[in-house]
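Table S7 (text form). Paired inputs.
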Amino acid sequence: MITKIARYGLMIFLVLLGLGGLIEGTTLLTDPGGAEMGSSARILGNLPIIDFVIPGLLLIAIMGVSPLVITYGIWQRLGWAWAAALVQSVLLILWLGLQILLWGTPILNHLVYLICGISLVILCLLPGARLGLEKPTAPSLQREPDLIELEAQFTKDTDPERAKNRQFTNTLRSGRG
């Protein structure tokens, strides 16, 4: 039950993060001055950039596309998905920490995404969450040994000389001898 909750919870949070990253990154690209988001390029004074184009591209790639790819990995139960989800959540928390460090007081948007990042970490670290993201293993089909294999095993165990002769005969038949 916990694994199912963790799996679907991760997918929901990652889809929301991805859509938010795509929307906000696109907004920064269409308005590099930042007026549409209620900010201005003046807050970039501490950084070696003059507008929001580079942050917009980073936002689209790291917080937009990446979470959606990870969601696909979780949905398909790919082996890398759990680790990628954990890394993504830590990146989100670090990204927000950097923004708060650079610009001071966090806004509501920061707090919402911080809660999302912490929730992602918790979901990744739930007991059994990693196992729930692995593909279920198919039952292995045990093949019945055929008569020749059984005879060879029996001969090998009961009559070493006959097994040696049989091996020599098989080598000659295969053309390797």
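Next pair, protein 2 of 2.
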Amino acid sequence: MRRHWKQATAFFLTAALVTGSSSFAVFAEEAQTEAEQKETYIAELLSEEPVSETADTEKEPDTTPEISEGDKTVEEAVTEATSETETETVTEVISEIETETATEVTSEVNAEPASEEQKNAKQSRSDFPSLYPDEYYYMEMFTYVGENWSIGIRSTMKPGETIEIGPKINYNYDVDGEHHADEFLDFYVEWEIIEGKDAISIEVNKENNQRAYLTVNEDADECEVRIKAHIMHQNDDGSVEELECYGGSSERVITIDKEYVPELIKDLREGEDGKLYYYVGDEIDAEFEGIPNLKYQKDKYYIKNGTVATDMNGLYLIEDERDETTTGDRYYFFKNGKVDGGYTFTGLAEYEDGTKFYIEYGVAVTDLNGPHWVSTAVDDGEKTTVDRYYFFTNGKVDTSFEGIVEVNFANLLFYKYYIKNGTVATDMNGLHWIADELDDTTTGNQFYYFTEGEVDKGFVGLTEYNGGKFYIKNGTVATDMNGLHLIEDALDETMAGDKFYFFSLGQIQNAYKGLALYDNEWFYLENGYLDTDMNGIVEYNGGKFIVAAGRIAREANGLWQDPKDGKWHFTANGQLQTQHTGIASYDGQMFYIISGELATNYNGTIKHNGVTYTVVNGQLYK
């Protein structure tokens, strides 16, 4: 159901009980159930679209339901309810009216289907009676001890006990359609004992006339007593009026039980010296040491010698027997004796033995395991930035772990880090060989390229490792890189300039000497990279080839002179034709070739194409 306006919430104060025997106990047994639903504006229910159980489709009433003259108005019903001996809550009154009205609406829906115009029409708030006026006061009752408070008045007391009671008032009003609720302080209370005048007495607090002390007489019999608070306001002209309060109840019923044993409340109270003292009932407990289960405190404190141990700062191991709030030993992070359960410190804290723990809300997170990003500072008196991953075991930085860990974000982004001494090894850079037992992210030994302890997937290029050179891609050696590859200067941190390198499984083969194919061309390699200074004959795979500037001279055909020894060779596509014996032409002359080489030592005659030639030093003459 939609709500058009907001009902102000009550101010909640912690309860405490003052006994005649000087023992304190505080209770909050009487919950204010009406407050949970009093915001509901009854016209809201009427503006809903009720559905008949027998109807096939949703229908709306075509007329606004009315409350007949014979019926009670909402205001009359509420007024009557609050005045009955057996007090009926506002919520119950509203519930009855809602049920009756909804039944009438449903009957009308079944009687006649609504038109389209009626379905589209919106009923305004002014069409229905309002539960509250535009401006009103709202009251809640409380019990006190000092400034500690609890909603509701104790429902059970024993003879001789005293409690301090009092109301809180909210002033509710609308401004420009928005609802406001402000605490109203300009009032005092006149208390009335409706039933049980012989059993109890009420004395107004002389320092605060909004509160009073309710005492059960020592000789009181077991019975029920009823009290009422009249909220009084003095106007500017000096006249006094009683304020009418909507919501809450100005009356309370208290049962007197001689056998009743009140709970001894554990609480902290501020002394005149400004210190917080630990009370059990109305007595300071100087014997207890540890973290007590305080009744009205969500925070945790370490108590010693009856007061908060304000000298406790940093991380402490609190054993189970000294912690009433939980079971088992636990590490807590304290500030001035208080467990720092807020947001002031989250991160690493160091224990006295040097062990570091991850702290959230003042407690070591003992279920934290594996890598975890810490973006805070170690609280060691000086703030030291530690934005990095740490490796945890049961919430403790695990300095014994060493190896590769993987961190993923939403199963989309994956990062690997090398952990040593409990955190990322930021001094780890370059290529490293990681043994299988140090890497749970994969199987087998593996090369990784690191930048400050993180596997650097962004680095691409050559790097050196243990005298060798490797090509890195995606954070590891590119083992699919084989043969001759041109590496640009920007990708080579080992040498300057663009160079051809010969690879096998991503590693430059420094010992390799010979020919290698690249882009349908053959090149000569020395020490694993292209030797552009090479000019001459190179033997490869049983053949001999002419190399010029480090490349096989495939354009070389016919006679070719070796610049190293001056010998002439017969070639085809840059390869020496050692199987050839016969005549070869060069520069208009003919020469005699034996086994692919010019026969400069041959002198004599030969017959070629039916003609006999004289051969002098391998050259033919007629």
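DSSP finds four helices and 57 strands in the chain.
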